[in-house]
Amino acid sequence: MTNVALVLPIQSSEDIVIARQKVRELAIKAGFNVVNQTKFITAASELARNTLDYGGGGYLTFEELINGNKKGLKLVFEDQGPGIDNIQLAMTDGYTTGKGLGLGLTGAKRLVNEFDLWTEVGKGTRISIIQWT
Amino acid sequence: MTNVGCDQIAQVIQKDEKIILEQWGSYQLSSFTMRRDLISENEVKQESRKFLQLFSGALQNNKNDKLTGNEWDDVRVLLADVSLSRAKKGFSPSDTATFIFSLKQPLFNIARENFKDIAILAEVLWNITVILDKLGLYTTEVYQKGREEIISRQQQEMLELSTPVVQLWEGILALPMIGTLDSSRTQVVMESLLQEIVDTGATIAILDITGVPTVDTLVAQHLLKTVAAARLMGADCIISGIRPQIAQTIVHLGVDLTSVITKATLADAFLVALERTKQKIVKVAV
Fold first, then answer.
1. Contact B249 A110 (CB under 8 A)
2. Cβ contacts (< 8 Å) between A106 and chain B: which residues?
3. B180 in contact with chain A, both atoms CB, cutoff 8 A
């Protein structure tokens, strides 16, 4: 069962702060423990910054999930930027086309339960992550 | 916008200015968004009269329906004044926009009396609506801008507030970081730390991140850069206040902090710093 909660714009670094606060709020509401909260918020922060820096801005969609007695939170980051040319390279620790550490994408993947990446050069990138209680 | 539009409307407005002002005034004053506690009846009437004059003037010279031409400059300036002064007085955005929207009814009334042909009347009403909607939105935009200026000023004030460098002991500095470490804030933090190292000749600086809710790769990178810069100035850094959940997150992210001394608490870090500077705190024997 899914339930679309809301959509937030990711157009400035202030939006990332707002997105992080919203993720924290919903993670607490879903009943995540402190470690899972922190992991999920950090992953969201990485991906939101990628959406802004590499995707040229986009949207973050929140979905609350319920599977039996497990609760989950799904975040979808979407942009209409240049897309990722070489996914294998992008998913390598330490590789970056920017000025960062090159750990955001791979790190985010390691921090969450489910990670799904869709990208097409010239069309954009969509990354969804899910964390369960 | 077609010709039946602006020219004729402007003429009608000038002809019936008195009636319009009277009706508009009473609509505004009886509106539920009218704030008699914040603005006087006289002010409202003055603003209305001035606006209507500029408005009909602009209408006469109007060239396109986007209201971008310079014939609308005076109207825009007046509206900006009105909305900014109302924003400062404590009006809400809808209170402010009502100034424009309440002009619709009086204009519709005089249009009905002056244009008997239904087709023309429909067009005139449509034109009035389009223009007034745009002007109404413009007041909201200006109002918003005024608010944003206040917010950005507060942000600037926060930048200065939130970066104290404190001297803990001889040669030992501490930097208690709080809140979101975005790029501009870390820049300020780094600068004030380096300056303080010069001023005090400290050899150890403790960066305490107890108050930083999220440590992602960007924050980690900022921390590493600060540590590297301090090292170049001859001071070693200790990062303290790493909570269990942050530690796990950093490990999963794959950020390498092994080149930096890290401690769970500021107290632990302080002990290390004392040791490094060959100092000791002892309990006084009773």
1. no
2. 254
3. yes
Q: Is B42 at the interface with chain A, CB within 8 A?
A: no
Q: How far is A47 from chain B (nearest CA, A)?
A: 10
Same domain, B104 and B212: no
Q: Are residues B42 and B136 in the same domain?
A: yes
Judge: B214–A100 Cβ closer than 8 Å, yes or no.
Answer: no
- Our count of domains for chain B comes to 2
Contacts of B104-112 with CB under 8 Å at 24 or more apart are B104/B128, B104/B129, B104/B132, B105/B23, B105/B27, B106/B19, B106/B20, B106/B23, B106/B24, B106/B27, B107/B9, B107/B13, B107/B20, B107/B132, B109/B23, B110/B12, B110/B13, B110/B16, B110/B19, B110/B20, B111/B9, B111/B12
Question: How far B213 CA sits from the closest chain A CA (Å)?
Answer: 8
For residue B94, the domain's CATH number is 1.10.490.130
A-B contacts at Cβ under 8 angstroms: 64
Same domain, B192 and B150: no
Structural domain span for residue B25: 6-157
- Cα-Cα-Cα-Cα dihedral sign, residues B44, B48, B54, B59: positive
Each residue's pLDDT, cut to its tens digit, for chain B (286 residues) gives 455 567 888 888 888 888 888 888 888 888 766 677 777 888 888 888 899 988 888 888 876 667 777 788 888 889 888 888 888 787 888 888 888 898 999 999 988 888 888 888 998 898 889 889 989 998 888 888 888 887 888 777 776 666 789 999 999 999 998 887 776 777 888 888 999 999 999 999 999 999 888 899 988 998 999 999 999 999 999 999 999 999 999 999 999 999 899 999 999 999 999 999 999 889 998 7
- This model of the complex carries an ipTM of 0.85
CATH fold, domain A2-123, is Heat Shock Protein 90 (3.30.565)
